[in-house]
Amino acid sequence: MKLTDIFAPGIDSKEWTSKDYELPKFNVAEVVKKTHDNPTWLHFGAGNIFRAFPAAILNDALNSGKYDRGVIVAESFDYEIIDKAYRPYQNLSLLVSLQSGGTIEKKVIASVTESLKADFQFADDWARLVEIFQNPSLQMISFTITEKGYTYNDADLARGLKPVLAMGKVCALLLERFNAGQLPLTVQSMDNCSHNGDKVKAGVFAYAEKWVADGIAPKEFIEYLSNEQKITFPWSMIDKITPRPHEKVQAMIAADGFEDNETIITEKKTFTAPFVNAEEVQYLVIEDNYTNGRPPLELGGTLYTTRQTVDQVETMKVTTCLNPLHTAMSIYGVMLGYTLISAEMADPDLRSFIQKIGYIEAMPVVTDPGVLNPYEFIGAVINKRLPNPFMPDAPQRISTDTSQKLPIRFGETIRKYHERGLDKSNLVLIPLTLAGYARFLKALDDDLKPFTPSTDPKLDELMAIVAPLEIGKPDQDWSPLKQLFSRADIFGQDLYAVGLGEQIEGMVKELYAGPGAVRATLHKYVEAR
Length: 529
Prior knowledge:
Strand order of the largest sheet: 6-3-2-7-8-9
Mean pLDDT: 96
Distance between the termini: 54 Å
Number of helices: 25
Strand content: 5-15%
Number of strands: 15
Structural class: alpha/beta
């Protein structure tokens, strides 16, 4: 069983379906031709998340029989992905969905019809990109290039129409579309970062404004990009975990007789494969603001809505239903000696800890976005996502940059309680999380064995604040805690000013009582809650 067999005449589909592989329900060759001649969607970023999510959504839309165009992918950073993970397999891939019960679902993804290297050094590929951008049929370009992919610098801006960075290349292609008749287009980020459409827009405009100032492009180019009847930069919220190719998954599909199961590691250290393994739960919420039509991705589960609702969904995720739970369990998980998030979910104290933070303490300040139910979202996090045995995520990774995360993940909830005059006695486990951070900064686990805290730009500074404090010494000068918990840059506000400082100090003293105090304190407050 090989991916390229899908194109072979007389393929025995029973061999695949008998082993629970879902094959395309559409004529792949016809979709490839129609997309080549009149493309509607070009995506930048050929990584695993693209194949596991946007491309898979389109595959579902094609399977419905209600659409007939695929997606063309362009890679602007690691060109080996195209050469090693796409073209040898005629752009097909296998999506392996990792179920929380330890099983897998397998689906051949055939919605990607071309794969291109987005750089001037590849003349044929670049010429094809220009051709695509000049085609009036093109409706949307999209991105999964990570937040750092939207950056730009003076050196690249000075390269004129031969930039190296992704946003410069995109701007050069948009100039081609402008020159072809100021054709409309939507520029859609699908990256996991706040207000992502604004990041694309800022990058594109940085190059456009520089080129106009240097006389490389006409001033009308800026007017074109600024005209929302022509060009839009919608926001979106995306949520799906796509780990590196998993050895257990490789073994499972190899046992089926599926031969395209090797791991590919590029020189730029991208881990990919002809298959992609990803968690079963996924969300893609997009601001419905398109100028030239769009692919019907709602047929694959995408939710289209307003910009305000996208913002509400993101706020719900980041400040209540996912990110705070991750941070809380990572702080305590490290101190309790865990190395896997899924293993933490088998710990009754930790499971109840995050469940009560989400459902009881944070929920009162959540704005229900309407398109996703906050209670159902948390339920999926707790019952499907975090316990998934295929997810190799570790509290050590999640606790990276904790000082940068606390103001948003917990500070926003505390701020809303304070501003709305809500009863802050309802806040017990969120204060316990912040108290746990003061104990975490000692870099000693619950057995008083040293651990290495994950990287954080303020780690040394904050560790120095708690350095005078000793574990197992009740009668000591606790004033460093005042210095720590009054830091609005760390916690979103002065915790004493909002009436929580003394409560958190008391919890810290319990956590510092001696060996085993972290577990005992966690259990005490979770049980009482």
